[in-house]
Amino acid sequence: MADDAVPAPSADDSSSKNAELPSAADNTRDPLDVRTCLSHAEELKQEGNDHFRARRWDEALAAYKSALGHLPARLQLQSKGKEKDIDPTEDDLEDSRPKDDSPAESSTQPDTLDAQAPLTEVEIECAKARAILNANIGACYMKLGEHKEVVAACTEALKDDPKYIKALQRRASANEEINSWSSLSGAQEDYKTLLELLPPTSPDVVNIRRSLAVLGPRVEAAQKRETTEMLDKLKGLGNSIHSGNFGLSTNNFQFVPNGQGGYSMNFVQNPT
Are 252 and 207 in contact (CB under 8 A)? Predict the structure, then answer.
């Protein structure tokens, strides 16, 4: 079924309801308007959850994206995130633990702009909602086998909550599936972060340690494979322009992952 085949969230006129909502890009609007957007986003999220439980991944994805579009854009934040109170929709929407919707009692505290400008209560609610929706979008992409999209969605969730357990887990798992040097290195970093965040008694710790043990040789193998491929291409390019006349060797070039799916090339004057 097409992504836009998502039924209206209620019997009233959804088009007029959407027309009353302020622009999602406006971060200066009245808090009451923002709460209206939050309410509508919550309705769409619940609709997405229903689709997800019914294994209608495309419809769930469309509903989550629609919900996200009703929320204010993320403010530019510094890294001062605190521990997250995980929403029950995060465990592939199968967790039946009770949810506490009270912002005052939630342990979620997204990053702050600076020491003089802490986030308001409604901004915290928006950040939490964005993080949950992006993580759920990642869950949909995981079911659809689109691993690069999982990474992108979970990265967005982590911008609002850097200590979001499920987003870290999903991103690490997806990066393992991508299986490039850069992605495997990213998975390593996420698993190490998870070990710092999870309590030692968590059942996930054993699996994470096992994944880390396996990842070490995989990262080395991917690094060797991709470096060899790049050096071969560089050698071919060098031969085509007669770089040997300048006394250059492929040993003069080293490649390191830049953390964004690509690589940086460094020139080494006297390679070992």
Answer: no
- Helices 147-160/121-144 angle, 10° precision: 170
Does pLDDT of 232 surpass 50?
yes
Is the separation of the CB atoms in 112 and 127 below 8 Å? Answer: no
Buried-state track 250-270, b at ≥16 Cβ within 10 A, e below 16: bebbebebeeeeebeeeeeee
How far is Cα 215 from Cα 210, in angstroms, rounded to an integer?
9
pLDDT of residue 117: 72
Cα atoms found within 13 Å of the Cα of residue 218, Cβ hemisphere only = 20
Q: What are phi and psi of 266, to 5 degrees?
A: -110, 140
Instruction: Provide the greatest CA pair distance for the chain.
Output: 76
Half-sphere CA count of 82, side-chain side, radius 13 A? 9
- Given a contact cutoff of 8 angstroms between Cβ atoms, the answer to whether 250 and 228 are in contact is no
- Secondary structure (3-state) at 218: helix
- How many angstroms separate the CA atoms of 133 and 157, rounded? 8
Rounded CA-CA distance 175/9 in Å is: 34
The 8-class DSSP code of residue 92 comes to: T
- Please give the Cα distance from 138 to 93 (Å, whole number): 12
HSE (CB half, 13 Å, CA atoms) of 38? Answer: 19
- C-alpha distances (whole Å) from 156 to each of 21, 61, 109, 269 are 23, 15, 16, 39
Q: What is the pLDDT of residues 191-226, one digit of tens each?
A: 999 999 999 999 999 999 999 999 999 999 999 999
pLDDT in tens, 135-152: 999 999 999 999 999 999
